[in-house]
Task: structure prediction
Amino acid sequence: MKITIVGAGRAGTSLFDALCAVGHDVELRHHDQLRGIESELILLSVPDDDIEAVSHELSVSEDTVVAHVAGSRGLAELSRHSRRAFMHPLAALPNRAVGAPRLSGALYSVGGDRLVEEVVASLSGRAIRLSDEQRVLYHATASVTANHLVALLGHARALAESAGLSVEDFLPLAQQALDDVNAMGVDAALTGPASRADMATIDAHLEALPPSERSTYVALANAAFELAEKRRATSGV
Result:
């Protein structure tokens, strides 16, 4: 399939490499190189707020599918075009070397023209179609799962460095927790003082923490308390 990707950032370059690898004829353009595009599919890999403006600048055949790869947007931003779609990969794409392999076999939230489902299939991915309300919640969940996890590790780094250690010392523990969630589920994987209502230990933690990190710790401890309460209510223990 002849595909043009507009946007040469992390997502755009990852998609370029992944789609080339499975045999598509792909060209990569910057958002200011919109003239003379002749492709079956144009994928807009630009900032979410720029999708509509870039889309409106495109002058393409009615047979061309114009799509974007944003998780939080739908078809309205592409209203100028008769064939339109979106295709959002549920994958972290920090750079093209890491991102491209992750696009193979990934889950994709899709909508609009069915051509994007063919593209997902070519990547051995799984396409899902969601309602508008579901899609926003899906994207919020993706942000929490990926971005907030990284922010949490930023909190862990600040604490580790205050103790004269590094966040790398604690990454095996983080991996163990993720492995436990995968193996036994969120509820069963929860451990630590909040899971056993050990307020004395939590108070000691708060006393030792740098003041700038206490509010984050309290928010996360409260979330762990709530999770532990739900577990006890479900198990009857």
